[in-house]
Amino acid sequence: MTSSTERTVPTMAYGIHPAERAHRLPTALRAPVEARTWRELAYLLLNLPMGVVGFVWTVTMLSLGAGLLITFVGLPVLVLALGGCRAIGYAERARARSLLWLDVAEPGPVRTRERGFFPWLGGQLGSGVNWRHAIYGLLHFPWGVFTFSVSISFFTYGWGLLTYPLWRWVFPVYFGQDGLQLYGDGHGGGWWLHTPADMVLCVAVGGALVLALPWTVRGMAHVDRMLVSGLLGPSRLADRVSELESDRGAVVDTAAADLRRIERDLHDGAQARLVALAMDLGMAKEKLLQDPAVGAAMVEDAHGEVKVALQELRDLARGIHPAILTDRGLGPALSAVAARCTVPVAVTVDLPARPVPAIEGIAYFTVSELLQNVSKHSGAARAAVDVWQTEDRLMLHVSDDGRGGAAVDAGSGLAGLAERLDSVDGVLVVDSPQGGPTRITAELPWRS
Fold first, then answer.
1. Fold for domain 328-445?
2. Sign of the C-alpha dihedral computed for residues 116, 122, 124 and 128 taken in this order
3. 3-state secondary structure 191-221
4. Phi-psi domain of 113 (left: phi exceeds 0; alpha: psi -120 through 50; beta: other)
5. Would the pTM of this model clear 0.70, i.e. be above it?
6. How many CB atoms lie within 10 A of CB 257?
7. Can you tell me the distance from the alpha carbon of 193 to that of 199, in angstroms, rounded to the nearest whole number?
8. What is the three-class DSSP state of 176?
9. pLDDT tens-place string over residues 362-371
10. Cα–Cα separations (whole angstroms), residue 132 to 48, 105, 165, 229, 344
11. Buried (b) or exposed (e) across 102-138, using 16+ Cβ within 10 A?
């Protein structure tokens, strides 16, 4: 998880909308009139008033609270100051979302172990998120002055000089002078922009400033993105705690589902068969005294049922944790799974050592489930499994030449598999266009 992201359109990794990309003009020429430039310019111009509000509130209220610390009143004032900083942060995140297309997650509420006014007061004063909002209020003011000054200077001088030949007529008509005065000595001497050479110079300098404006704006807006995401979002520790809580829930749900599956298999399979077998043996015992031939036949049937029950128990044990995986490792275990697949499967395992049993088990069941999908849904003629290690990751790649169309949809088997991998910091990537082929890659942390 991340605390801040661009909008979900893939081409907007840097705040660029797809509609802004379909142009034949070079980027340098169209950048000054792109919507992105105007959005980011508006954001930078608003930095000054927002910076003034944040700075004045932060400095005034923190100073007031610090000065009143000799009395109890100072503590609530400091909490009020931090609460106001968080409110300003809320407005800043909304501004960044609308103009910079930067989504920053809302930081969670301050949690305290005990209830009551004083624990709440201590939690607010000890919250790193609150103080990061206050730091933002202090830092954003000087940065806002700088960005406003640079942005307004580039904009006014650039477009003003570029279009100067169009509005130079204002000076002789309304001011009685030939053009814009750049220099005057007060005695009739000076330099007015009015000659053809002056016009060319103005257009050249203005054009250079206009072309430089978008890149200057984007550079400063990038700094603003870092300030907002770094100071106004949830902390990395909070993100990690939230992620671990979510992963723990997924692990608990998966374990509960596995237990229910095992209970169901035992109840509907082996247990029911053993109950029927006990009844058959009881009837055979009675028949052996009355009609030995019939009793012997019933014992023979019961013997067959015993074999079937044992096979079901072996299959159930294999579903929990196969003995071949424990004894021989991932390569032989995956070869055994591939042998049971309805299509030919080429298995390649290249590992320098065995990972820890937990990771090895998840890798085994991941490939097993993917091959079951190949057998049931793909309509493939052949498939392949590749397993290797790269740096600190265990890589699994399962491919087939089937009809494709696999997707990690809510409620699907692949969605559950992705959640199981995510619970151990793993990743599942599915590439399965309609018509095939299907290529599914899973990453797991390497722990040996």
1. Heat Shock Protein 90 (3.30.565)
2. negative
3. EEECCHHHHHHHHHHHHHHHHHHHHHHHHHH
4. alpha
5. no
6. 12
7. 7
8. coil
9. 888 888 888 8
10. 20, 15, 49, 11, 58
11. bbbbebeebebeeeeeeeeebbbeebebbebbbebbe
For the segment 289-305, what is each residue's pLDDT rounded down to a tens digit?
A: 676 776 677 766 766 66
Tokens of 354: 């065995």
Residue 205: closest CA among 160, 235, 247: 160
Residue spans of the domains in the chain: they are: 4-234, 238-320, 328-445
Q: What is the pLDDT of residues 116-159, one digit of tens each?
A: 777 777 777 878 888 999 999 999 999 999 999 999 999 999 99
Specify whether the CB–CB gap between 165 and 199 falls below 8 A: yes
| Token duo for residue 351 | 């590992």
CA distance 181 to 194: 9
Q: How far apart are CA 250 and CA 41, in angstroms?
A: 44
pLDDT of residue 226: 92
The pair of structure tokens assigned to 75 is 């503590």
Q: In the numeric block, which tokens belong to residue 205? A: 């300098």
First-to-last CA distance in the chain? 26
Cis peptide before 437 (omega within 30 of 0): yes
Q: Distance between CA 122 and CA 28 in Å, rounded?
A: 53
DSSP-derived secondary structure for 25-85: S-HHHHGGGSHHHHHHHHHHHHHHHHHHHHHHHHHHHHHHHHHGGGSTTHHHHHHHHHHHH
- Bridge partners (DSSP) of residue 428 are 442
Residue 17's φ and ψ, nearest 5 degrees, are -85, 145
Q: Are 407 and 417 in contact (CB under 8 A)?
A: no
Task: Let me know: does 44 contact 151? Beta carbons within 8 Å.
Answer: yes
Round to whole Å and give the CA distance between 225 and 274. Answer: 66
Tell me the C-alpha to C-alpha distance, in Å, between residue 307 and each of 264, 270, 360: 20, 11, 30
Residue 154: which H helix or E strand, with range?
helix 128-162
Give the Cα-Cα-Cα angle 61, 66, 67 (nearest 5 degrees).
100
Encoding tokens for residue 262?
Answer: 């095992």
Write the class of the CATH domain 238-320.
Answer: mainly alpha
Residue identified by tokens 């960005």 is: 147
| 93/86 Cα distance (integer angstroms) | 10
Residue 444's nearest CA partner among 398, 407, 395 is 395
Q: How many residues are recorded in the chain?
A: 448
